[in-house]
Design goal:
alpha/beta, Rossmann fold, 2 domains, eight-stranded mixed β-sheet, two-stranded antiparallel sheet, elongated
């Protein structure tokens, strides 16, 4: 299966078995087990499979390929493949590599190299070997014993303890570690990477994330269409795009020689027209392609931020509604539903309780009338009995009005929380924006985008200058030669693109990088917690105290009514005598029941209100804990925020790689006797500085 080059191609003019080709062969094509005579296109170079060794009992899988342009022969070792016929041997070998044993598969890999090297001895033998993962470990095992072979690995497994000589440098081996590969990062953390022989270089491919562990390790996707990108976001929505992950695209090599630019300067080249043409072409094609891809990533980030900004009132309203729903449902008492509005069920219920109290008071007056109006024939025997509860009813009524006022104050403060305090969660940042995180990102991107455009213009101008110098080199030489031949005066005029000043603007924003969201969340939510508790808790405590007072007053009232009635009926002789001959006691009991029944209903409701207030006090901190994740997402959508990070990280990877490339350009153009080349060197040096400025600013948009 050939990889479709839908990501910008690199160094396509270099046909030898360079590291990029070997990494792609090891990380992608080897895992497809191509058949004998298959042709694999790698960076526009055809490789033909001339030998295969699959399904070996040791678990070894390998293929030998020939570069159809250079006739160079390479062995590519396949990494761990548990799904293969002898996949369990791969797993066993991985485990054995942790020990001091020499697994059978390593011996088989060495034997295969020896056999292929002898088979193709007449055409130069095996010149390169490569592998990923376990395949990289096999490469290491072969290369430590064969220092003449060029060995390249991608995220290799370690070798058995004792196989690597700490006094040897193994300069024939180059290992590339992906930034997000768990295996190599773990080996480094455990200080076991010294069991990987040779040079070790980090490349900035891959995407952080648990679901990308496999591709971060192999460096490639194995999609049927050969595509090497992850889709970010949703189709049709802002921020939808692709991040390319193919590992070979992230290996930085000299634009002239194709030699990787790691571990020091490359070999000096002669600065002549041909090499200036190569530089100009690379600037126009490869470098601009990579920087335009970086710009595309940034464009997706900006689109996400702008979309989030346009959604501000939607985010705010959703957060307000969420808080209101959480508060309504914080207790199971139905009376408290809608308490976040001034006209709510609870205040209406208190009005109903006051009307119930009026009924009870009227019944109490009727009871007094009955107690003081016995049958006339026994009037002289009656001791006047009176229930003096008017003051108690008045006190109770005042307490209910006090409770109603307190509930209304709670509702008003709840409305203040929703209308004023929740919007304050969004406010902050360097410029005190009403939408802090979006405002900070927008302000920063305004500067970054301007700087990005300046950099691209600077490179376009530099490319024209390089091309002009190359052209004038040739024309000057031809003109001088013609003048010598014709014995005439050299009169060729020089025309070179002029130099403009490109000074990138400093950005005072995003000093805490993408931690600004966490900072905003922590700061704003702490303030929200303190301020809302200050608004609610005193009123909730007051309401609780008032309900206790109401319950106490109701107890006194009920006791007074029951006590006086008991005395009238059971503790006075007239009462007992009257009850023998009349329905006097039935009237009293009925009236008492009619008086106490509404009071009991009132007491039950007030108890429910008190428990509701108590629950609000105890459960409000829990509500705040449940509310916080909604706040985090409302400040800036979590998925969108992470996608901004991903795009910025992909963009910074390219900018970092371009800085490495320009290090070499500056070096190659430097210390030259020609003034024009020195001038180009100075411009390239300024370009590199501007790349560094832009890199630092874009890197602020990452979570690292």
């Amino acid at each position: 299966m050939d990889k479709l080059k839908d990501s910008p191609n690199i160094n396509t003019s270099i046909g030898s078995n360079n590291d990029k080709d070997l990494v792609e062969l090891a990380g992608l094509h080897a895992y497809t087990y191509p058949l004998l005579d298959s042709v694999l296109q790698v960076n526009n170079v055809d490789y033909t499979v001339i030998d295969t060794l699959y399904e070996n009992p040791t678990g070894l899988d390998a293929m030998t390929v020939i570069n159809m342009e250079t006739d160079e022969i390479s062995i590519i070792y396949v990494g761990t493949d548990a799904s293969g016929e002898y996949g369990e041997q791969d797993i066993l070998t991985d485990v054995q590599l942790l020990s001091d044993l020499t697994p059978a598969q390593l011996s088989a890999a060495r034997n295969y190299y020896t056999r292929m090297n002898e088979k193709y001895y007449q055409v130069g033998g095996v010149q390169s070997i490569a592998g990923n993962s376990l395949g990289g470990g096999l490469v290491g095992a072969v290369a430590v014993e064969n220092p003449e072979v060029n060995a390249v690995t991608l995220n290799p497994a370690l070798l058995p303890d004792g196989m690597v000589d700490p006094n040897q440098t193994y300069d024939n081996i180059t290992n590339y570690f992906s930034s997000y590969d768990v295996l190599t990062q773990t080996l480094i953390a455990l200080n076991l990477h010294d069991r990987i022989p040779g040079k070790q270089y980090e490349i900035f491919n891959g995407i952080p994330g648990f679901s990308m562990l496999a591709t971060n390790h192999t460096g490639y996707l194995r999609n049927e269409d050969g595509s090497q990108y992850y889709v970010i976001g949703e189709v049709g929505k802002p921020g939808y795009g692709k991040i390319y992950i193919d590992a070979d695209a992230h290996i930085v090599s000299s634009i002239w020689t194709g030699i990787p630019l790691y571990g020091g300067q490359s070999e000096r080249i002669e600065i002549n027209k041909e090499n200036l043409d190569i530089l100009a072409t690379s600037l126009q094609n490869h470098i601009m392609e990579r920087l335009n891809l970086s710009r595309e990533y940034l464009g997706h980030s900006v689109a996400i931020v702008e979309h989030e900004g346009n959604r501000f009132y939607e985010r705010l309203n959703q957060l307000q509604n969420t808080f209101e729903n959480l508060f309504d449902n914080i207790i199971s008492e139905p009376l408290f539903i809608g308490i976040t509005n001034i006209s709510n069920r609870l205040t209406a219920e208190i009005d109903h309780l006051i009307s119930i109290l009026d009924i009870a008071e009227n019944n109490s007056k009727s009871l007094n009338y009955i107690l003081n109006s016995p049958p006339a024939e026994l009037l002289e025997h009656i001791f006047q009995t009176d229930i003096s509860v008017e003051s108690i009813f008045a006190q109770l009524r005042n307490q209910l009005y006090e409770l109603k006022a307190d509930i209304q104050n709670i509702s008003r403060n709840m409305m203040q929380i929703i209308s004023d305090k929740i919007p304050e969660i969004f406010r902050g940042g360097k410029e005190a924006w009403y939408d802090a995180v979006v405002g900070e990102l927008n302000a920063h991107y305004g500067i970054v985008n301007g700087n990005r455009d300046k950099l691209l213009s600077h490179i376009t101008e530099f490319q024209k200058q390089v091309q002009d110098v190359a052209t004038n080199f040739q024309m000057q030489d031809q003109s001088l030669g013609q003048s010598i031949k014709n014995k005439s005066t050299h009169s060729h005029s020089v025309s070179v693109q002029g130099t403009n000043t490109y000074t990138l603007e400093d950005s005072p924003y995003m000093e805490w990088k993408m931690k600004i969201k966490d900072i905003q969340l922590d700061t704003a939510y702490t303030a929200f917690t303190v301020s809302t508790q200050a608004l609610l808790f005193p009123l909730l405590e007051t309401g609780k105290v008032v309900t206790f007072a109401i319950e106490s007053t109701l107890e006194i009232l009920s006791t007074s009514i029951k006590g006086a009635t008991n005395i009238a009926l059971n503790h006075t002789l007239p009462g007992k005598l009257i009850s023998l001959f009349t329905d006097y006691d039935d009237k009293i009991r009925n009236t008492v029941s009619n008086t106490l029944q509404p009071l009991d209903e009132l007491a039950s409701t007030v108890e429910g209100i008190r428990k509701g207030l108590e629950r609000l006090i105890s459960e409000y901190p829990t509500l705040l804990n449940h509310f916080r994740p909604y706040v985090e997402s409302a400040i800036f959508n979590n998925n969108g925020y992470f996608n901004v990070h991903l795009y910025n990280q992909a963009s910074t990877a390219i900018l970092k790689e371009m800085q490495m490339l320009f290090d070499d350009v500056v070096y190659q153009l430097g210390d030259n006797k020609a003034d024009a080349i020195n001038a180009l060197c100075e411009i390239s040096r300024k370009l590199k500085v501007n790349m560094g400025v832009l890199y630092e600013q874009v890197e602020r948009g990452t979570l690292s």
